[in-house]
Amino acid sequence: MPVHNREIADKFDRLADLLEIEGANPFRVRAYRNAARTVRGYPRAMADLIDDGEDLSELPDIGDDLAEKIDKLVESGDLPLLDEVEQRTPKALSELMKIEGLGAKRIKALHEALEIDTIDDLKEAAERGDIRNVEGFGDKSEEKIKQRLVKYAGDEQRTQLIEAEEIAKPLVEYLKKAKGLKDIAIAGSYRRRKETVGDLDILITAKQDADVMDHFTDYEEVDEIVSKGKTRSTVYLRCGMQVDLRVVPQVSFGAAQHYFTGSRDHNIAVRKLGIKKGYKVNEYGVFKGDERIAGKTEKSVYKKMDLPYIEPELRENRGELEAARKGELPKLIELDDIRGNLHAHTKATDGHDSLKKMARAAAERGYEYLAITDHSRRLAVANGLDEKRLRKQLDAIDKFNGDQDDIRILKSIEVDILEDGKLDLPDSALKELDFVLCAVHHKFDLPRKKQTERILRALDNRHCHILAHPSGRLINEREAYEFDLEKILEEAADRGRAIELNAQPDRLDLTDESCKMAKDLGVKISIATDAHSATDLDYMRFGIDQARRGWLEKKDVVNCLPLEKLLKLFER
DNA sequence: GCCGTTTTCGGCCCGACTGTTTTCAGTCG
């Protein structure tokens, strides 16, 4: 079993925590954290890069030393430096870093004064009232720690974007009622349309004497006020979501939007650009000495860096600054570019609505076409179609299309990829369809090589047009299965198969980086809602969000094609 | 420990809030 990037990153992070607690050089600590971020977010497995003989020290924030450590980790699973550090500093201390308000210095103080090594030790000490007596702590610190421990639940999950919207929208509506409020905007990963959101960053401009902060902390969903100042407050809502509110002068609104939209890496890169030009960039503007030379709009900030405006979805420091400098930013796809939807279910299998209702809903959304892609027979839990029932559905579609001219229903099926890579229906049935969607729905735990071969074999079938939800992951629920996506994409490019970006908010499968990889390899993408009801068709916008994060343009996406061109593409 | 369009050495993003201080360190984003 190859070592996951995530495991490597976790080890580097733990090492960074322990080194920081020991009081190591803070820049060395940061180097490990930066490396952890690079490895965790890298679209290809370190093990594969090594297999291909690539030089890991070419990766950002990875130098010779860390390249060697990753090599060793992949080869043997060992990180000797971490073992060594754990000999002298209890490894559970890194867990304490997750408690809000406790950082390296204070953990070290607790460890030295009270021999606190674990969360349980901390709990007991807090209950006994020992913490208040440690130098640098007091009554309030002890009380805060107690409160945090009650809520502490280990690894905190990030919130799906769709849920974050449900939390953010009423809050924004409420905030708009604050006296003296002028502008309001949500920043952070929410604005970058990341698939999950850690906390909400809300930005406001207001009149001098406004009561925005009081209004904010009075919100009925507020469970706890973490901090409250004139320009910045943090609360927890009852749902557990952290919300940061910042108030900035209007003249700084653009700079603040830029700053608080992030990503962190993008901001750091922009700041460095600024420094090179002799400017200082912060949330109040771009400064030359004491003079503010930009900041009212985001565009003005980029302009001072000699860059065009960069869309929030691209701000991940994954090459967007270089692309901007060269004038090669993608013209990102928009919701209006979509002409149809190539993955939808009906009552015939596990959908909730009839073919007609689905078709009407698609027409109402201005689509030219909608593909009905019910499940195939192997998926018995979903009442998958056998040949006979499929035939019946095709007749119904013919009849429907005969009566309509504002939308065309495409005949298709989401056919199961069997364990050996064969498809769940014979070619004689598949060739009757406008196109075929293939998907893995069982045997998620095959070894990587077998899983990859299974999917490659399915792509080999001349009747396969699109591979649906390619990784099988469910956000916060199920990891992607083990497979070699790059190989799949290369094969798809070779054979002219498209790959789906499934727009279900809990799938968003492909990931943003995988979208970019597909694009770079020349693979076309189908952004599809996998709708199980008429209202699910609205998930398209989440697919668009993800596609934009993956640098996709209209020309990369098959369902931006008009019907005739799409059908031509599917001709075999 | 990483990195370089003035650098292979000497930098490394920076401002707000809190609590425990009596002028600021620690933490966070």
UniProtKB/TrEMBL annotation:
Q: Where is the Polymerase/histidinol phosphatase N-terminal domain?
A: 340-419
* Key words of the record: DNA damage, DNA repair, DNA replication, DNA synthesis, DNA-directed DNA polymerase, Exonuclease, Hydrolase, Methylation, Nuclease, Nucleotidyltransferase, Sodium, Transferase, Ubl conjugation
| Coiled coil spans | none
Q: Which CDD domains does the entry link to?
A: NT_POLXc, PHP_PolX
- Give the superkingdom in one word: Bacteria
Q: Which GO terms describe its molecular function?
A: exonuclease activity
E.C. designation(s): 2.7.7.7, 4.2.99.18
Q: SMART domains of this UniProt entry? A: HhH1 (SM00278), POLIIIAc (SM00481), POLXc (SM00483)
Q: What does this protein do?
A: Repair polymerase that plays a key role in base-excision repair. During this process, the damaged base is excised by specific DNA glycosylases, the DNA backbone is nicked at the abasic site by an apurinic/apyrimidic (AP) endonuclease, and POLB removes 5'-deoxyribose-phosphate from the preincised AP site acting as a 5'-deoxyribose-phosphate lyase (5'-dRP lyase); through its DNA polymerase activity, it adds one nucleotide to the 3' end of the arising single-nucleotide gap.
Q: What NCBIfam families would the database entry show?
A: PRK08609.1 (NF006375)
List the protein's name.
DNA polymerase beta
Q: Which organism is it from?
A: Microbulbifer halophilus
The gene name reads: polX
